[in-house]
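pls design
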């Protein structure tokens, strides 16, 4: 897999589609490798006329790891945030947004359609707000604003997300990944067991690095409420969200769309916090349609 040095770190990425087509940068979420963007969705977007680039965020997959850099505990960060103090963290979502821009720089891409999922949606918000000249369009997938008044994740979804596997044995890791996928996934579009197990095993063999998500989480908590930043976004915006998302409730998508002038919102019943194969055509159509319309 190719890699570049961007924003001072090594970033691994993949490209699909014709290099002469408009670029589309896919930013994945918390603790998730680039492989969480399904091949079928990537190929469908490439087939609709885009140069699709997906990459591993810092501290995950095959990109740079911040070994041994400690993040403050979740309880401490939450308490500091509640009294209006910003905890000191190893890096921020703004730093991660600069990684994406650095990748575009390294690939000599002036402007791209920015698509972010979950934490990747938060990173993409920073890209759209702080680097509008680099954005052809912005699509947010099951993400949120940081508004503390929004409904929280369901208890079982949050517990599954932060729970550590019992060991680093491959079968334990695969079972753990399947448990997480089933807990936060789409009740209306469940993944077939064999496909889910195969994809989980591929991801485990590609990389297992439990330290990275701890620092990812600290970046999310430290970022706080982004609504003021979102109100300044002028990039054409599409918000996609599942109506049955147990991890980031649909209200997060509504709140985002309410903050960004002219944003379009599309919600889908039965969709949770994953990218099911049964929704690939619909999601690709929404993302590609928005990108094409934004390009004028």
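designed seq:
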């Amino acid at each position: 897999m190719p890699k570049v040095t961007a924003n001072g770190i090594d970033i691994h990425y993949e490209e699909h589609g014709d290099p002469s087509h408009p670029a589309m940068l896919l930013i994945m979420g918390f603790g998730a490798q680039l492989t969480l963007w399904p091949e079928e969705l990537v190929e469908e977007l490439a087939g609709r006329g885009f140069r699709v680039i997906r990459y591993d965020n810092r501290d995950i997959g095959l990109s740079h790891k911040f070994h041994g850099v400690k993040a403050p505990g979740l309880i401490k960060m939450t308490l500091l945030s509640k009294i209006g103090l910003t905890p000191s963290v190893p890096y921020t979502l703004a730093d991660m947004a600069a990684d994406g821009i650095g990748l575009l720089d390294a690939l000599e891409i002036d402007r791209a359609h920015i698509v972010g999922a979950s934490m990747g949606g938060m990173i993409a918000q920073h890209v759209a707000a702080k680097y509008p000249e680099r954005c052809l369009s912005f699509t947010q997938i099951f993400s949120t604003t940081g508004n503390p008044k929004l409904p929280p994740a369901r208890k079982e979804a949050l517990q599954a997300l932060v729970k550590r596997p019992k060991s680093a044995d491959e079968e334990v890791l695969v079972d753990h990944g399947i448990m997480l996928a089933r807990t936060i996934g789409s009740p209306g579009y469940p993944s077939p067991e064999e496909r889910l197990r195969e994809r989980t095993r591929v991801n485990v063999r590609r990389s297992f690095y439990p330290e990275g998500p701890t620092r990812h989480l600290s970046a999310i908590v430290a970022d706080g409420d982004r609504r003021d930043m979102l109100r300044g976004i002028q990039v054409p915006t599409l918000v996609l969200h599942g109506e049955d998302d147990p991890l980031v409730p649909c209200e997060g998508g509504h709140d985002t769309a309410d903050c960004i002038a002219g944003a379009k919102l599309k919600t889908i019943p039965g969709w949770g916090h994953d990218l099911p194969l049964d929704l690939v055509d619909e999601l690709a159509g929404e993302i590609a349609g928005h990108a094409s319309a934004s390009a004028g």
